[in-house]
Amino acid sequence: MKIHKTDINKINDYLWEIPKSFNQKMRVPAQVLASEPLLDAIMEDRSLNQLINVASLPGIQRASLVMPDVHEGYGFPIGGVAATLYPDGAISPGGIGYDINCGVRLLTSNQNIEKIKDKVELLSKEMYAQIPSGMGKGGQINLSSEEMEEVLLKGAEWAIDHGFGEKDDLAFMESNGRLEGANPSMVSEMAKKRGTDQLGTIGSGNHFVEVDYVEEIYNDEIAKAFGLYKGQVVVLIHTGSRGLGHQVATDYIRLIMTAMPNYGIEVPDRELACVPFNSKEGQNYFKAMCAAANYAWCNREVISWEARTAWKNIFGKEVEPLKLMYDVAHNIAKIETHIVEGEELKMIVHRKGATRAFGPGFEELPNAYRAMGQPVIIPGSMGTCSYVLAGSPKSKELTFGSCCHGAGRRLSRTAAKKQVNAPVLKEQLREKGIYVEAGSFKGIAEEAPIAYKDVNMVVDTISASEIAKKVVKLKPVAVVKG
Q: Model's pTM, two decimal places?
């Protein structure tokens, strides 16, 4: 059914709603967090149709939601949030995505950009040398079957135990870098095989390692608590569970599509395949998803070790090492408690291309951040800027404690390649003081700044809606792409 703007009710300048009456299959309204110009852009693809479909999931609560960086994905829109009632509400692999626990982490240094400007190009080349990138690219770690089991159970802790990380990092990761519900036996041998040599690799697509500096501070108190200051050089890492997570999604989407009729479930789009969370298939998928999420946290910890190695190689061992500021997931399902119509309910919260943005007092936060709210890391594109935000109490009211995860694509990869001359773009970025290291010009073209929405507009929408506060803006100086 075609959606027109007249079908969408304006709740306020940054919140829009498609009522439940729009489609007889909808169990709840569909809500869009966006400014009006962003809403107009969102209507150009199938995101809102997908959002309406999500509103039909069994057990869904309050509303299906999308963030201002939304674009269409597999089944669920990317930038989507859906909470279903625990224990028998739906769990849908499409609501987590193929790259399970794709996420972002920020490492901080004690170096000022003005002091290291002459070494940025060297640093970009050293980062590229130390951190394997590209489609299917393997790294220096080759896991035995026993080691793979440990990684899937222990997450980032495995990397630290084996000398590829710092013990202090665990407190600064969402869920301390490990989901307890993991069961490696629920992960197929094919998935494990695909992940055998991919720890410490970023892969391809929109994944990257970036050297930035703090260009602007919006909230001095929170920035200080997060250990951020103007001119400070930082390293941003964006990647997930690689081939292992992709295979877990593939395996269980196929299985759950077959199992749905056993539970009398019909969905408006096969890509929304789901089963009750407490069903055998639902439990097996969740245990496999937790294991893949643990692999992703371990992967980002090993990449941090590689980035720290590159840092030492350029600046010397006497320079203070990179510290982990925070690590957030943005493709994951979590069991959480939220209030709906005055009632406290336990729910399965799907976040696909959406980040947790819990406010001050959240017990999972490290002591240093608890009074400030959860750090939220929002990458832009390689030619623009990125942001660090802090979650606010309003996120729990509006979005199940969720926020956007990036700028959001506006052009498909194919369209971007047609419009962008990659060698020219690389030179243009270099002239701006941004050094790009990539395995192919194809990767540069697909990830060109023109392919993305304006991250400033996206973040301003989040800020104006009060689900998170702006803390600092980051400007890139070096980018490693697959």
A: 0.96
